[in-house]
Amino acid sequence: MKKITVLLIALLLSTTSLVAQEEKAIEKAVLTYIENFFENKFDTMNSVLHPRLSKRGLNLNGQINEDLPPAKLKEMLEKKRPLPVSKQQNKVEDISIFRNTARAKLTTGYPNIKWIEYVTLVKVNNQWKLIDIFWEYYPRKKGSKPMKRKRRN
């Protein structure tokens, strides 16, 4: 009986360790995406995106924006100012895993506007890839000014 108990405990610890490793890998994939999105580093960001990525969200006016597949994300990154990691506030939580699929909640944003992204991932060739992202902004605080966008020529 003692051998069975010890074996069950060892199995439980091993499984817990594997889940923790998968959660760390998922968190790393999500952070690689968002940190490099803000820093305008498309190639590094794209390394964790599935080619069939679907990214869209609910704008402040309540409308769902157009889809942003990787090619459109690349165009966007070429036009916006980078935000260094030191100024980012990214938090990955509520990771849920089922075999080769997972989801996570990402809280992020710029200094004057925050949002939540719900991220769905799929494991391909033993690597977690983001396949679906949907975001919604937090309500703006009274008196806060909209973010100014600078256009590059």
How do the helices and strands line up, and which of them pair or pack?
Layout: H1 2-38, H2 42-46, E1 49-58, H3 70-79, E2 91-98, E3 101-110, E4 113-124, E5 127-137
Parallel strand pairs: 1-5
Antiparallel strand pairs: 2-3, 3-4, 4-5
Please give a structural write-up.
The longest helix is centred in the first third of the chain and has 37 residues, at 2-38. The chain has helices at residues 2-38, 42-46, 70-79; strands at residues 49-58, 91-98, 101-110, 113-124, 127-137. The N and C termini lie far apart (74 Å). The chain has 3 helices and 5 strands; from the N terminus they run H-H-E-H-E-E-E-E. Helices cover 34% and strands 33% of the residues. The model is unreliable at 148-153 (pLDDT under 50). The protein is of the alpha+beta class and 153 residues long. The chain is globular. It has a 5-stranded mixed β-sheet.
In order across it, which strands form the biggest sheet? 1-5-4-3-2
How much β-strand is present in the residues? 25-35%
Q: What's the overall geometry?
A: globular
Radius of gyration: 19 Å
Give the integer mean of the pLDDT values: 87
Proportion of helical residues: 25-40%
Give me the number of helical elements: 3
Number of E strands? 5
Order of helices and strands: HHEHEEEE
Strand count, sense and barrel status of the largest sheet are: 5 strands, mixed
- Low-confidence residue ranges: 148-153
Query: Please, what is the oligomeric state?
Result: single chain
Classify the secondary structure makeup into a structural class. alpha+beta
- The separation of the N and C termini measures 74 Å
